[in-house]
Amino acid sequence: MSDASLHASPYENEAQFGDYFALLKPRVMTLVVFTAFVGLLAAPVGVHPFVGFCAVLFIAVGGGASGALNMWYDSDIDAVMKRTAKRPIPAGKVTRDEALAIGLTLSVFAVVFLGLATNWVAAGLLAFTIFFYVVIYTMWLKRLTPQNIVIGGAAGAFPPMIGWAAATGDISTASVLMFCLTFLWTPPHFWALALFVRMDYDNATVPMLTVTHGRRATRRHILGYTVLLAIFAIGLGFTQVGGPVYLATSLLLNALFLKGAVQIARRDEAQAEADSYKVEKKFFKLSLLYLFAHFGAILVDAGLDRMGVWA
């Protein structure tokens, strides 16, 4: 027996609180919380602060439940992808059965308590979001079609609609366009990432567009979706949640995003490899700012409107 094994802690591989929290995909949860919060506050109906807090909390828990169920089902491919190999299940910290139990329990908890705290329209949307992400995307289409990111993006696009429904009890043109904003943003965001981490998807045999159709086609798809995104994003500025701050932000960011997408579409792999995918990485970083800035602008306009600035 080696000295290292003699001195190893018997608790070294035991799960800590952070491992269970990691199951909930906290980075994704940040986006869920923020967009749901914006949808709630941008709605034309005010809600009690405590009710609003509960609504965002239960939406976040539902998003976390989806993440746990996704990790439960995808633990096999997570183990072979470099960027996911340290997740709790492939790292041996949490078992698949534990992840499944946590995901199912939190799903029921989130849906039931959101319905009790707000209304059953919002709860129904949350239940459908969890079902869509886990069953339609993760279990069915993720490993079947190169449009997996497009389909998966729909699940991540529901939170502002759920936040809006929590306040109003209904769905409107504005909430649908907030959904479209995230839905259409997801493909160029993730395909830009896939351009410089392609081997991960090759190793995991996930049919990412870069793998099935090649990088040239992926670059064209990024441009196409960016054009669609710009149309819907700017269009959102002319609904009841839009305003001067949002329109100015959207026009500037979409001009920069379109410029980046055109640059990506014009490049070949020799150019990209020569500068270590500098343009693609810059576009990916911009995409992170893009979504948060758009929803942040909606929030600012909503605040200024309630203060009577735009009256």
Number of domains: 2
CATH architecture name of the largest domain? Orthogonal Bundle
CATH class of the largest domain: Mainly Alpha
Number of strands: 0
Helix content bin: over 70%
- CATH superfamily annotation of the largest domain: UbiA prenyltransferase
The gyration radius over C-alpha positions equals: 21 Å
How far apart the termini lie comes to 77 Å
The helix/strand class is: mainly alpha
Specify the number of helices.
16
Per the principal axes of the C-alpha atoms, what is the gross shape?
flat
The CATH topology of the largest domain: Tetracycline Repressor, domain 2
| Uncertain stretches of 5 or more adjacent residues | 1-11
How can the largest sheet be summarized? none
Mean pLDDT: 89
How are helices and strands ordered from N to C? Answer: HHHHHHHHHHHHHHHH
User: Which percent band covers the strand fraction?
Assistant: under 5%
Please give a structural write-up:
The protein is mostly helical and 311 residues long. The protein has two domains: 154 residues, UbiA prenyltransferase (Tetracycline Repressor, domain 2, Orthogonal Bundle); 140 residues. Helix 4 runs parallel beside helix 7, helix 4 runs antiparallel to helix 9 and helix 7 packs antiparallel against helix 8. The N terminus is likely disordered. Its main location: membrane.
Task: Give the SSE map.
Elements: H1 3-7, H2 17-22, H3 26-42, H4 49-73, H5 75-78, H6 96-117, H7 120-141, H8 148-157, H9 159-168, H10 173-196, H11 198-204, H12 209-212, H13 214-236, H14 244-266, H15 269-274, H16 278-306
Function: Converts heme B (protoheme IX) to heme O by substitution of the vinyl group on carbon 2 of heme B porphyrin ring with a hydroxyethyl farnesyl side group.
Pathway: Porphyrin-containing compound metabolism; heme O biosynthesis; heme O from protoheme: step 1/1
Main location: membrane
